Amino acid sequence: MTDAPLLEPKDCALLFADQQAGLAFGVGSIDRQILLNNVIALAKTATAFNLPVIASTSATKVYSGPLMPAISAVLPGIAPIERRNMNVWEDDHAREAILATGRRRLIVSGLLTEACVSFTVLSALAAGLEVYVVGDACGGLTTVGHDLALRRMEAAGARPTSWIQVLLELQRDWTRRETYDHARAIVEAHGGGYGIGLSYARDMIHPT
C-alpha cells in the first residue's frame, strides 16, 4: 500500500451504513453510548467541513428501525436510502448516490462491522475508491469479530482511522478560521479529556 496524501474536505464523502437502534442493540465491541457519541461527532465533522453525506438503512420496518434520531438531528437534510441487502454497494440507488458525489475518498461508519460495513468497504475498494473505515464509529457483535473485520478490510486496502483523527486531519491548522469554531466545538462536546482541556484553555488561560 502506498502512502496517500492527508485527507482534504474536497476529496471526501461520508457514508453511514445502518446506524440504526435495532442493530446497535447487538453491538458488543464498544460501549453503545460511546459509539453513539463518536458517530454524532463524525456527523458534525461532515457538516463542519461540508462533506457530502450518504446514509443507508435496511429492514427499518421489520427489525432495525430508522436512522437513529440523535444522528438524524445532526443531519436534518439527509434522507436515508433504504435497501434490502446487507451490502450498500450492491444497492443501485445507494451506490449511485455515493458515486454521484464525485469524491474518490469514502469515509465509512456503520453497523455491523462484520457484515454491512465490511461487505460495503470491500466492494467499494474493488470498484476503485479509496476507503477509510472509522473504527470507533463502527460496532461489531464482538470485539474479536470487529477486529477481524477491520483486519480483513485493511488487508484489502482500506485505511483504518478514528473520528477524532478524521476531524483533526481535515482541520490540521487551528488558524483555519472558517472551520475553527465548529471543529473546536465538536472536540469540546465529544472529545473526552481532550475536549475538557480545550475548554479549560479557552476559559482559564489568557495569553499576555
UniProtKB/TrEMBL annotation:
An annotated Gene Ontology molecular function: hydrolase activity
Highest taxon in the source lineage: Bacteria
Residue ranges occupied by any Isochorismatase-like domain in the UniProt entry: 12-164
Keyword entries, A-Z: Hydrolase
UniProt-listed Pfam families: Isochorismatase
InterPro entries in alphabetical order: Hydrolase_YcaC-like, Isochorismatase-like_dom, Isochorismatase-like_sf
PANTHER family tied to this protein: HYDROLASE, HYDROLASE YCAC-RELATED
The protein, known as: Hydrolase
Organism: Bradyrhizobium quebecense
